[in-house]
């Protein structure tokens, strides 16, 4: 952009004005010349954003091959102003209507502001200009040329400069072309009145007439009187064939325009409301489907979403209970009657859809998640190839249905549908019941233990634990905790539950009141630990039992706690105690404690003559003469098994001890 420095500003302005007075003709101007700006025109900026300037462009033109063009510029501070100013022109009653054509490059609103200004005294002093009209980017079809009409009758009898100025900071581009100054429109364009069918079916084509009409006409449509209005491509004649692409009520209107300067487009005709029947676009206008193969394709472009319309939760794309997300774009509704088996599969095989099956008492209940029950949902069929579908098509199981009852199918395009998006909805009966069973869960678990993977017969459903709705794929006993638990598997409206228990493996130990007894003597065996109940190999069920074995015998006790068990054994040693050199008295010798660390009490039925301790090889390691029938012995011995020999006259007795 060329910046005219203040030092040169006055001299340049005088030069331009001189040219304007003698040679320049301001209008008409279509910028077809080899020189830009045209003779007598001036261009300058406000000193902000000096890179881009007005120029001629062959990229687009409304008349001829060239137009005037200013490109947007991203400036660091402030707002860039780019001025293109005409030579002087006389405004008279027969030349007081400015007509020009303009357009932009981009469809989005980038915040540019376009102005037409007038000065009666200077071509380059911006302080002398008055704004006559301002345009913003918020306009219909910004990349199409629009005819702008500006009334300059307030300047009748004056000689003026007309400026075209764009304000922007990283805004849009602006093209202007075919500028004229006329005395008004001799044949105003007229849109007439629109007539034609006022009811039709979606995607049906009907003929509509605008009459009487003059000038160039353009048919437009909208989903409401408030818009947005969209030009029908190629619809510029009357009568005109128009296809109903909007469900509900579509409004049809005509805009009439003229290329003659001063002619204002006519948009005054009343839009014609057309009721468009769109089967399946409303929950209470569901399309009844027959069960079995189908060759009917349903189009989704133009289908709407009702306020409150239900949708499955978002999560797992290939599951049988969620979609990838819960966004609705273009939904169509269908219904079917459940067969005698109560089990069907439903498929939309022909483009990227998402399916859901719902149970509802009335169709209006589908407008609230609290009154509709989801049976099944799928976004992406993991077996699309085997099911003869395209990638990202949908396939659901719906089982455990009530035969003869009506159910609803919600089909939605994953993204906004185009005219190419259509699919069949195929409901296939299955004679066998939907199998919702699963394997992998044990009837009980004893901690510590590992997790169990849950494997369904029919994949894609939802595993949950107890009353939670959170999905699981395995059962982890340590996380579940001690107690009784229920694992549920739901798919397609069917549910299987299985119960398991989790307990801690109990700690069990056992001890005898006398590790060596004589034949005919009794000993008490006592189990202890964390078990809640016990079972002995003898049949006993208490923590302690009394045994009277005739020979050395091994006993086993099993402790139980919440389905878990642990067993431990003990050997009760028995001596005949009837030999010539052995005591024949009951409970002749006892040691406490046993095992011990070398400190223990030896008790006999009377005071003994001698006490001897030997190791397993018979080596004597201790000898003492007791003073009573109860002797505290403190001896330092290595760990192991030893024998205590007690002598009373000619009688002897022996007991085994364990040093630990």
The largest sheet is: 6 strands, antiparallel
Please tell me the total number of domains.
Answer: 6
Mean pLDDT score: 90
What is the straight-line distance between the termini? 102 Å
List low-confidence stretches: 1-23, 578-586
CATH class of the largest domain: Mainly Beta
Structural class: mainly beta
Short description:
The protein is mostly beta strands and 660 residues long. Helices cover 3% and strands 43% of the residues.
Structure description:
The protein is mainly beta. The chain folds into 6 domains: 6-182, Jelly Rolls, CATH 2.60.120; 193-277, Immunoglobulin-like, CATH 2.60.40; 283-429, Jelly Rolls (Sandwich), CATH 2.60.120; 438-504, no CATH class; 508-575, Immunoglobulins (Immunoglobulin-like); 589-659, Immunoglobulin-like (Sandwich), CATH 2.60.40.3080. 3% of the residues lie in helices and 43% in strands. It contains 2 helices and 51 strands. Strands 1, 4, 5, 7, 8 and 10 form a 6-stranded antiparallel sheet that branches. A 5-stranded antiparallel sheet has the order 2-3-11-6-9, with no helix packed on it. Strands 13-19-18-15-16 form a 5-stranded mixed sheet, with no helix packed on it. The chain is elongated, with a radius of gyration of 50 Å.
Using brief descriptors, characterize the structure shown:
single chain, 660 residues, mainly beta, Jelly Rolls, Immunoglobulin-like, six-stranded antiparallel beta sheet, disordered N terminus
